[in-house]
Amino acid sequence: MSVITTHKDGEVLVIVSNNPPVNALGQAVRAGLQAGIEEALADDSVKAVVIRCDGRTFFAGADITEFGKPPVPPSLPDVINVIEASTKPVVAAIHGTALGGGLEVALGCHYRVAAKTAKLGLPEVNLGILPGAGGTQRLPRVIGVAEALNMIVTGKPIKASRGAENGLVDKLVDDADLEAEAIAFAKSVAGSTDLPRTSERTEKLKEAAADPSVFSNFLEKNGRKIRGYEAPIACIEAVKAAVNLPIEEGLKKERELFMKLVSGTQSAALRHAFFAERAASKIDDIPKDTPLIDIKKVGILGAGTMGGGIAMNFLSAGIPVTILEREEAALERGVGIIRKNYENSAKRGRMTEEQVEKAMSLLTPTLKMDDLADCDLVIEAVFELMSIKKDVFGNLDKVVKKGAILASNTSYLNVDEIAACTSRPEDVVGLHFFSPANIMKLLEIVRGEKTSDTVLATSMALAKKIGKVAVVAGVCHGFIGNRMLAKRQQQGQQMLLEGAKPWDCDRVLTEFGMPMGPFQMADLAGLDIGWDPEKTSSSTVREVLCERGRRGQKTGKGFYDYDEARRGTPSAETEEIINSFIEKSGNTPRQIDDQEILERLLYPMVNEGAKILEEGMAQRASDIDVVWMNGYGWPPYTGGPMFWADTVGLDVILAGLEKHADKFGEEVTISQLLRDKVAKGEKFN
Ligand code: 3HC
Ligand code: NAI
């Protein structure tokens, strides 16, 4: 069946797209739309047109899979120009998400009728491009420059109700009535020749034309968020063109900027990120129809840093949580922090007071293990010690009902060993959240040797429900993320003893686009994790820092000195400690240049990623990228470590690893998979 069909309702021609799953504007859809308008113009009995979509959404954008391939006409900008130029009124009937090219089609229509639950947006910037079918020129003409700039540069969609206020939506209707209302609307304007063509409108551009401070103000407010990204800057340039140039020239400018971005590395990386995230949600060897467990109640052990944050995910999703602690004081503190976090969200306008109370009402604090008996899922987040975890899982096995999922939030420990303490290892899984757990998007689902398909599939579905991006990892020390991180942190420490400064290592990585470097990260987490004041022996820089009370940000000093606002500056004391270690080792400190720092910190991570792949601990290279972009702030515009390695060239990475082999010693042995890929001229992705 054709993806576009037409039928008549009186004097209205209804053009219907049916291109599941999201009505992406692929070539057949574009051609069909154009043919539909031509059909309407050629038929004297037709006086107006409605464009609508079947399925779950109005057009969700251009077909991203066509990017990077030779274009096949008609192009989307041409189709939209045909729609806008129509001498018969065209009405868009919008439901679901009108995104990117989808909203651009709607902007080319003369009128927009939207269902109340619809959302409208131009998210192209998230793919490293800009709206390339007139969106940057038409949206400001309809809703004004300030709001258009915000939508285009942040990529965040707005609700249809907001669209009804700002002029984007001409009529807001109940979802069930959309088609009928759109047709009625079309009939009410049928025969009209005085059509509101967006590209002819200029009244909402005047303010910004007279006072361009809207652009500088926007940059001032958002500069930090868009640091390193090319697309947001191009978006701003395109909207400026809308204000300063006639429509034809503005569209030309938009096209130029679009073509440049779409053929660039950042866009390729961000498109990779988009598809990688979706691929990560698929577990290759599990049947699609695997039955799921209905998670109606969650139990959490430990109300510390992680337990509290994990609880918030479920509370916010409306799932009741019972949280268990060893003693009253810890329980009260944990619950207090959850409430404070919610109240802070409310203060920032992200939640209403009602929502705060609703979430808190779903939380039951307890000191009794028996209260977890009827939970469908229990997540353990107690201290990172195997003996304690074993004890906890042994007890859970006795108390919690059969068929429930028993999960551990362990960072490093062997999930199979933990599972072996229960009579039901098939129900045990690792659910590794990242700190702060209520905010970080990543969830590593650690698949034990015996974990059942049902437990895995349920974990994946649940991750989606609580808004996490999940990746399946195998059982190995540190799973995917922390295993790779360990290599980077180790090289950082080692380079200090060769003469590099902590702040140089950190600067190289922040210039690369990471939110922080290895030493800033160590200071943030606390240098005393795993440090025992009873057993300390001044044998590492880190130990001496702890001994001298330099335990990280929380003590006001660590590798760096911190002021009250927690801004770090290089510390002379840290430098003196490092120097004394260098002296003791007999090494001659040397100047390590930025390129070597980058290679020593990142190449071993890529190498470890390759080992994780060859051992089957990750399903695919792109999963590793998803872990790093969502759990550790790896800059998405480079696509994650494995995609980045592909762009650097795997032969270059291998040569770099070999060049530094004497410095790496046993810490970094080169992955066979990496060697094989280089030999075959292959990439990871
Ligand atoms: N092109 C091609 N495939 C797309 C697509 C698109 N624009 N949008 C979604 N898909 C695919 C997904 O890859 C996924 O495929 P899979 O099932 O094989 O993994 C499938 O559609 C379903 O997508 P989701 O899993 O994301 O479904 P959700 O219901 O969770 O979300 C959505 C739906 C909100 C529409 C979300 O898919 C989305 O945000 N899509 C991208 C929207 C976008 O970026 N649009 C702009 C495109 S660029 C553009 O329009 C350029 C223009 O200016 C010229
Ligand atoms: P934490 O020390 O902040 O909290 C642990 C809590 O567990 C404490 O409040 C403690 O009183 C409680 N507890 C200990 N034994 C208990 C028991 N038998 N029953 C009930 N409660 C008990 O520790 P944090 O940081 O929350 O870590 C918890 C787990 O999460 C560890 O396994 C850790 O490796 C993992 N993790 C930690 C991350 C982090 O950044 N802090 C990130 C990801 C995982």
Topology:
Elements: E1 4-9, E2 12-17, H1 27-42, E3 48-53, H2 76-85, E4 90-94, E5 97-99, H3 101-108, E6 111-115, E7 119-121, H4 135-143, H5 145-154, E8 158-159, H6 160-166, E9 171-173, H7 178-189, H8 206-210, H9 213-222, H10 231-244, H11 247-262, H12 265-280, E10 298-301, H13 305-316, E11 321-324, H14 328-347, H15 353-361, E12 363-366, E13 377-380, H16 386-399, E14 405-408, H17 415-419, E15 428-433, E16 442-447, H18 453-465, E17 469-474, H19 481-498, H20 502-512, H21 518-525, H22 541-547, E18 560-562, E19 568-570, H23 572-585, H24 594-614, H25 621-631, H26 641-648, H27 650-659, H28 661-664, H29 672-680
Parallel strand pairs: 2-3, 3-4, 4-6, 5-7, 6-9, 10-11, 10-13, 11-12, 13-14, 14-15, 16-17
Antiparallel strand pairs: 1-2, 7-8, 15-16, 18-19
Helix pairs in contact: 1-2, 2-3, 3-4, 4-5, 4-10, 5-10, 10-11, 12-25, 13-14, 19-24, 20-24, 24-27, 26-27
The structure holds 3-hydroxybutanoyl-coenzyme A (3HC) and 1,4-dihydronicotinamide adenine dinucleotide.
Residues 21-22, 24, 57, 60-65, 76, 97, 99-101, 104, 123-124, 127, 131-133, 135, 275, 278 line the site of 3-hydroxybutanoyl-coenzyme A.
